[in-house]
Write a structure and sequence with these properties.
By secondary structure, the protein is an alpha/beta fold. The chain has a single domain, classed as inorganic pyrophosphatase (n-terminal core) (Alpha-Beta Complex), CATH 3.90.1640.20. Helices cover 44% and strands 12% of the residues. A seven-stranded parallel β-sheet has the order 5-6-4-1-7-8-9, with helices on both faces. The chain has a two-stranded antiparallel sheet with strand order 2-3. A two-stranded antiparallel ribbon has the order 10-11. A hairpin with a 2-residue loop joins strand 10 and strand 11. Helix 1 runs antiparallel to helix 9.
Length: 363
């Protein structure tokens, strides 16, 4: 009886995940690349909805009371500030993973992005602490807390020394999972790029190296991206190389193209990385039965405002305003609302008319 119930619940979760993926992959920019990249990522990960697989992986592999590493921050050279994409998704997922799975989010980024990251996460309701378990707290010792560890950009003075120190501190936290969200990822030649083929190595931290160390330690890795030049998106590197403007041949002279080389164990593709994060969180909330951690437009709107106030800019326009990848907040608000309704309405409908899922479960 229990097995039948579990299989039925899993079926409904997958159906809901299908809807969440569709919302997160509406090609609002009209680029024409979202569907083929998404389709390849999905087919190569077993064919299940990506938001479902990603959140299921977190549920299965994360360990309550331990650290989860969230890597974010994509620096925009024109203003030397982080872009908004990645920050709001990271802040929301930090809250969802803290409240839903009892994890301690430790967020890593460039030192220049740390103030915007901290502002975003605190607007999501978490309080900053040292990346070690607080003494004297029972149960979930990390509940409501987060920490940051800044990593140096490659052009920083004493880069290697600072990088090793930061990495040593991170590994000392004994993380149980590593999640990359809208981070520049190096290509097969070891160079990270913007979408338009320019090197970012001098203004970026070497989080590829961090992910490699996580893999060496057997820590499961997860990656969220939207163009394929992001860390961890190597699973679909061939598709990115074939269909994006600088996928095969970049403009920096390295000859490697922009497609990221390193691949995560779980990959989520969206039109915008932040919206992909909201879909992951919605699926996580649904599977845990926790409506309180569903993406909330008011909460996330406050997160975006806090990040922008702290200096974050739109990644395409470099404007310090309430937009993410050239898409205004009102549109992202609508997408978040649709994701909430996908979960809530599907659950209400199933409670009233269970025959639909019952029939599919025995098909």
């Amino acid at each position: 009886m229990t097995g039948t119930k579990d299989a039925r619940a899993e079926l409904l979760s997958k159906i809901i995940g299908e809807g969440l993926d569709r919302i997160a992959t509406i090609d609002l920019h009209g680029r024409g690349i979202v569907k083929p990249i998404y389709d390849a990522a999905r087919e190569r990960q077993g064919g299940r909805p990506l938001s479902y697989s990603f959140s299921r992986g977190l549920i299965d592999l994360a360990e309550e009371g331990r650290v989860v590493v969230l890597a974010t921050g994509f620096m925009i050279r024109r203003v030397m500030q982080p872009e908004t994409d990645g920050l709001t998704g990271t802040a929301y997922l930090a809250r969802a993973l803290s409240e839903g799975l009892g994890l301690m989010p430790v967020i890593i980024c460039e030192a220049a992005a740390e103030s915007s990251v901290a502002a975003a996460v605190e607007a999501a309701g978490l309080s900053r602490t040292d990346p070690k378990p607080p003494e004297g707290r029972k149960g979930r010792p990390y509940s409501g807390l987060y920490a940051t560890i800044p990593f140096p950009a490659a052009s920083d003075e004493d880069f290697k020394g600072k990088h090793e120190t930061a990495l040593e501190g991170l590994l000392a936290c004994s993380p149980c999972a590593f999640v990359s969200i809208e981070r520049p990822g190096k290509n097969a030649k070891g160079v990270s790029h913007t979408t338009f083929g320019m090197s970012m190595d001098d203004i970026s931290a070497d989080i590829d190296d961090v992910m490699g160390k996580m893999e060496d330690e057997g820590i499961p890795t997860f990656a969220v991206g939207d163009m394929g030049n992001e860390l961890g998106m190597g699973l679909i590197g061939d598709v990115v190389g074939a269909i994006t403007p600088y996928g095969k041949e970049c403009r920096c002279g390295c000859g490697g193209g922009v497609a990221a080389y390193r691949r995560a164990r779980y990959t989520m593709m969206g039109t915008v990385s932040d919206d992909a994060c909201y879909a992951i969180g919605a699926s996580l909330a649904e599977q845990l039965g926790r409506d309180d951690i569903l993406p909330d437009p008011e909460l996330i709107g406050g997160v975006l405002k806090a990040a922008v106030t702290a200096g974050a800019v739109d990644g395409i326009t470099a404007v310090n305003g309430l937009s993410i990848d050239m898409i205004g907040w009102d549109t992202h608000r609508s997408l978040i609302g649709l994701m909430r309704q996908q979960v809530l309405t599907a659950r209400m409908h199933d409670a009233e008319r269970p025959q639909f899922i019952d029939a599919l479960a025995t098909f």
